[in-house]
Amino acid sequence: LSASVTIDPAFVVGPVRPRTFGSFVEHLGRSVYTGLHDPGHPTADADGFRGDVVELTRELGVSTVRYPGGNFVSGYRWEDGIGPVEQRPRRLDLAWHSTEPNLVGVDEFMRWCARTGVEPMMAVNLGTRGVQEALDLLEYCNVPGGTKWSDLRRANGAEDPYRIKMWCLGNELDGPWQIGHKTAYEYGRLAAETARAMRMVDPDLELVVCGSSGSQISTFGEWEHTVLTEAYEHVDHISAHAYYWEEDGDLASFLASAVDMDHFVDSVAATADAVRAAGKHTKRIHVSFDEWNVWYQKRAESRPPSGDDWPVAPVLLEDRYNVADAVVVGNLLISLLRHTDRVHAASLAQLVNVIAPIMTEPGGRSWRQTTFHPFALTARHAAGDVLRLAVDAPVQETAKFGAVPVLDAVATHDAGTGAVVLLAVNRSLTDDVALDVDLRGFPGLRVAEALTLSNPDHTWSATADDATSVLPRPNTTAKVSDDRAHVDLPPVSWSMIRLE
Ligand code: AHR
Fold first, then answer.
1. pLDDT at residue 280, as a whole number
2. Which helix (H) or strand (E) holds 195?
3. Which of 3, 60, 132, 390 could connect to 407 by a Cys-Cys bridge, CB 3.0–4.6 Å?
4. Strand 237-244 relative to strand 402-405, pairing
């Protein structure tokens, strides 16, 4: 197969936003306990945080981390997680049928963020709680001192306020599985009043209202419309959540998952703009795609315990990702970048152990899953402006999305360094794509680096014993002559080509 792409510096979509490369840590399974936090681990710091996980998080290039949930936050009492650790209560976590020991709370998390160099994105509980508890947490975190909650933070060791900027107004309240599930109108009113009160404390917060928990849910579209009709003036972003997986061996549809993500963002943006017009608003609402990933929801590891079994940090949602999963993750990042004009934040869900690029053994080794690599390379190299491409590619039939192009790609251009980065996937199950790139808008560029992630067996996944035999490898077919680049992309592959 052959395909062509034209890259032109004039076709700017918007800037590459660091917050596109966010992630997510929920009190769920082994994400926090034995993931981030493992006091017996040889690399643990005074808080019990694993140094190896801090290093891997940095290498992954994560910018923001959403916390503490997820479904967990809809039943969470944040006050349980502050003060002397030995006095903190153990609680039932209804979302994941587990016991929450509260060894990590907001203060420990903020120290982990500072150590890792990531921006926190805090979620408040609008499932079982409301305006007052959100205000209390905001006061604890962001008010310098002289009040009950701010002085308690100081007494707990944090003299300076955290001044957390991004706040999520609850989580997935459209989902019938959510503790405190609400109708769109009930939630829209609560979110609006919570946001209004939070802005009385700090007008400069960036507030994320809950959108839909997936594009397949029956209320998709209507939910966004109603919620934004109630809350438009009080919020900055609306969330989007999407998980994809290979269903019943349908690899072609799975590889085209970004088609759904494109549709998701376009639909939410259109709905927000419709509410904007009808409400005579002037500002625009942006999308915070704050949960996205591959997640095999039907696998046994995704089923929480039941009955009287309420374990601490059970093995839950520990998906082992293969090469095809990593290609899809790379493609979803291409979709997010392509929408950088509307998607102002995103979070790969999640970071450690739970549907995660980083895996750990309790007290032992940590390793990178296949999905780590496209994320880390995109976060490291995408810079400057995102460019819209003219793509000409053959199509392949898929059961879910009809005919889709075999090639999907986006490019970034850093006007400062002159570097152009092309990110491309070949979704063909069988054929190479010979890609021709028209670079006439960038005379004189040369290939600085070309890496491709693929494997004859796309079901290969990393383990603690072998996390390196399949890695992005130099693609030696990448060449430039006469301001045209050429590269061969193997089937089921993701590539990053850096031109300087
Ligand atoms: O990320 C796992 C779960 O997926 C989150 O807790 C929830 O928000 C979503 O349904």
1. 98
2. helix 184-201
3. 3
4. unpaired
Question: Which tens digits make up the pLDDT trace of 426-478?
Answer: 999 999 999 999 999 999 999 999 999 999 999 999 999 999 999 999 999 99
Judge whether 172 counts as a catalytic residue: yes
Marked catalytic residue, from 133, 172, 224, 246: 172
According to CATH, the topology of domain 18-381 is TIM Barrel (3.20.20)
Name the residue at shortest CA distance from atom 5 of ligand 1: 70
Angle of CA points 159, 163, 167, to nearest 5°: 135
In terms of DSSP bridges, do strands 237-244 and 286-294 run parallel, antiparallel, or are they unpaired? parallel
Kindly give the number of the ligand 1 atom that is closest to the alpha carbon of 24.
1
Task: Supply the pTM of this predicted model.
Answer: 0.97
> Other C-beta atoms within 10 Å of 430: how many?
8
Whole-number pLDDT of residue 303: 84
At 302-355, the pLDDT tens digits run 789 999 999 999 999 999 999 999 999 999 999 999 999 999 999 999 999 999
Q: Is the CB of 171 under 6 A from ligand 1?
A: yes
Architecture of domain 3-8+386-499: Sandwich (2.60)
d(CA 416, CA 425): 27
Compute the distance from residue 380 Cα to the ligand 1 centre, in Å: 27
pLDDT for the residue 300:
74
Ligand 1, atom 6: nearest CA belongs to which residue? 70
